[in-house]
Amino acid sequence: MRRPAALIDAARRWLYEPPDSVAAPSPGLRALATDARRLASELFQGGGATIDTPPDPAAGSPLAVRTVVQADGDVICLVDERHCADVDLRRAHGRQVDAWFVGVGSTLRGTTEAVRTAAVSLGLATGLAAGTAAGTLWGAVGVSALAVPAFRAAAGWAVRRALRRALR
């Protein structure tokens, strides 16, 4: 059997350590909400996010490279046959696609952190309310210890359910 201190440390890490990230999350909840709405619109209403790289205007072609990222995970890249050998254009397009994915990762990390914070706060508030009603400090600690993971699990379930519905 593991020691109680080790269990408490494992629970603390699970609850409070942020995931590894490449980019910083969105600066605030309003910006996060705007980013999430834009991303949902691109992926679910528009049939996928489209990243276009126009060629040199003198080439006469309206589009050189287009990448479409769909919500089901498909990534489709189309290259105009006149630009297949243009390494610089492909690299520039690759940088645009990378920047899009970094932005998506930042939005998803920010959303995850917001949901985690809300679930933990709601669990702690429930524990404090129950402890106050019972009139004991240990009642508040006990209910909080049970409520925080329960609210986190419920929040995770709600997010997964919403994503399943959106992907249908």
Describe this structure in words.
With 168 residues, this protein is mainly alpha-helical. It has one domain. Helix content is 65%, strand content 9%. The protein contains four helices and three strands, in the order ααβββαα. The chain has helices spanning 4-16, 29-45, 87-134, 137-167; strands at 49-53, 65-69, 75-79. A three-stranded antiparallel β-sheet has the order 1-2-3. A hairpin with a 5-residue loop joins strand 2 and strand 3. The longest helix has 48 residues, at 87-134. The chain is elongated, with a radius of gyration of 23 Å. It starts with a helix and ends with a helix. The mean pLDDT is 76.
Write the layout of secondary structure elements.
Elements: H1 4-16, H2 29-45, E1 49-53, E2 65-69, E3 75-79, H3 87-134, H4 137-167
Total number of distinct structural domains:
1
Radius of gyration: 23 Å
**What sort of overall outline do the alpha carbons produce when their principal axes are compared?**
elongated
Strand order of the largest sheet: 1-2-3
- Helix count equals 4
Proportion of residues in helical segments: 55-70%
Q: Report the end-to-end length measured between terminal Cα atoms.
A: 44 Å
The tally of strands reads: 3
Q: List the uncertain runs.
A: none
Structural class: mainly alpha
Mean pLDDT: 76
SSE order, as H and E? HHEEEHH
Reported for the largest beta sheet, the result is: 3 strands, antiparallel
